Amino acid sequence: MQTALALIAAYLLGSVPFAMISSKVFGLADPRTYGSGNPGATNVLRSGNKKAALMTLIGDALKGTLAVVIAQQMGLSATVVALVALAVFIGHLYPIFLKFKGGKGVATAAGVLLALDPLLGLATLGVWLLVAYVSRYSSLAALCAAGAAPIISALMHGATHQTIVVGLLGMALIGKHWQNIQRLLAGQESRIGSKKKA
Question: In whole angstroms, what is the distance from residue 105 CA to residue 95 CA?
């Protein structure tokens, strides 16, 4: 029962749409109506409001971190903590509050990784920052980080429950970026900082 409640609570926490909340706080349009249509920090940035984008980024990351930290503090097993990490991430991707149409999970995954293993989280974040700085493509940075995270985890910890969950997070992230992959290949992907399009 405790495990079930922890997973449900993590999913609901993951479902909290900070892109929508920050947009309302700053009087912006629904982020699903412009740019990529994704309710996430990168798309909110396309509104031109950096504070709203930062609020979204921090909120989405913190909910991933919070879910894992609470599970750890409750003394749940490593397996259950890994499942909680997966549940909060799925909540962000398929939030009940947005009719199961959520963001792509980059910030939430970063928050989860930092809570599971700070070194793993920082290493993965480093991959994202490097690729984003060089290419100016948030989606390409996310894809590279998603691919690198399970490899880094396996090198650090071997084939543990954590590595399996990190692998699942990576595959889900890549899947959610399928349209971005197509746009990248076609040379039509928006760069970081580009303004919104109607």
Answer: 11
108 vs 166: CA distance, rounded Å? 12
Compute the chain's Rg from CA coordinates. Answer: 16
Look-up: residue for tokens 């290949």?
Answer: 185
Tens digits of residue pLDDT in 108-122: 999 999 999 999 999
User: What is the pTM assigned to this prediction?
Assistant: 0.87
For the chain, helix (H) and strand (E) counts, in that order, are 10, 0
Domain ranges across the chain: 2-95+108-186
Sign of CA pseudo-dihedral 158, 80, 100, 60 = negative
Q: Which helix (H) or strand (E) holds 131?
A: helix 118-135
Q: How far apart are CA 183 and CA 63, in angstroms?
A: 29
pLDDT in tens, 31-54: 999 887 889 888 898 888 999 999
Residue 10 has pLDDT above 80, yes or no: yes
Angstrom distances, CA of residue 26 to CA of 21, 167, 195: 9, 36, 17
